[in-house]
Amino acid sequence: MVLEEQKSDIEAGTGLSRMARLGRADLLSGLGPAAYGRVRLRTLTNLRWLAIAGQSVTLFVVYFGLGYHLPLLRCAAAIAASAVLNMALTLAYPATHRLTNREATVHLGYDVLQLAALLYLTGGLQNPFTLMFLAPVVIAAGTLNLGNTLILATTAFLSISLISVWHEPLPWPPNETFQLPPLFLGGIWASLVIGIGFMSVYAWRMASESARMQAGLAATQLALAREHRLASLGALATAAAHELGTPLGTIAVVSRELERSLPADSPECEDMKLIRQEAERCRRILTQLSHPEDSLFGATNRLPLGALLNEIADTQRGGDIAVEIKLAEGIEPKVWRVPELLHGLNNFVANAADFANSAVVLEAGWTDKELRLVIVDDGPGFAPEILERLGEPYVTSRPGNYALGDSELGAGADLSEHEGMGLGFFIAKTLIERTGGAVKARNRNGGKGAEVRIVWPRGAIDGAVPPDAARL
Predict the structure, then answer these.
(1) Domains in the chain, ordered, with CATH?
(2) Over 70: is that where the pLDDT of 386 sits?
(3) Alpha carbon 209 to its chain's center
């Protein structure tokens, strides 16, 4: 039963690893703004039905309720065109149909032009419903890429400009006229243009940040799944050692009894002796697997902080960069060797080694209230342009730039490789925070390299239970 449970864990980890090999683009295809242009047709048609209902009620109230004169048939024809379009789309496409960037832009562009036609027939910018021009542009900014958002904003701008000059009179009581001063109309035009520009940029920027964060979190989950898979392999080896120990012991006992019953100089006795020796050898190997702290096959689940840091430092040793470990005086705390901690610290140390000139120092200390780890390198330090944004996904060492543009976060992007994409620090920070640690980065005084300081409260990684179990 133990083996079956461990096998299921490994299969789950293998599935996640296979998903990582397929590329993060497939994983991100349904992450909202991260998958630009993947808007459901049903969403836009439902919004258009709401607009049709609102326009119809307004037309009915103004013409029949208030008795204002307006071109009823032409206004009704513009509203009916939207209704016919919605019905045709509902019949032609399934409810789950998703639109490309271009298709969504065409649909939203139609809504802008239909609104412009209604406002042209009902007073142009004098009509208070000109504010509705904001709706399609904001929707585009939150769901489409920057290029298509600009196309739609330009369409709205041209429509507003045209109906500000050419339009039919505003519906008003018979024998009365209403005309706003040109200066006031100019103010309305300016406020609409500025509002469209501001709202579209704001909505697009928020969607862009959300897409970047979601993509980075997806990369973190894939990296963590790989670490958990390795940890599950170790658990499977321990379970296998436990389950196979009994049958191997039986083989050793039976072979020894047969060896004693056979003549000492017979070939069969030599074969039994060989079988017994090989069975004992298998038992020794399985013992090593079940007690990895005494072998080279793995590591313990919990070990002194210095041993953990030495294990991480070994991955960066052997080259031109010296990795030194400095421990405070006193009894070392024993920390849990969890995947989040290993992968996070490995990323920080590897990043320091990449930028160091000659040395990286890991300084560890502890008190009754906290554990501290400071990772220092003698390199050029963090660029000032990215220092305040460290911890965000896709922030790279190239000054002032993201490693991945917003247009590259679409469904067709191949994001399966994380190297050089500004994800290392983000993934490491996220994983360390999952263990209860707080991460701060700064440049050392005098420009003598970069420093990453990590602080855990006591019990977070050295408590009675692993960090994950402590949060359950």
Answers:
(1) 6-221 (no CATH), 302-470 (3.30.565.10)
(2) yes
(3) 11
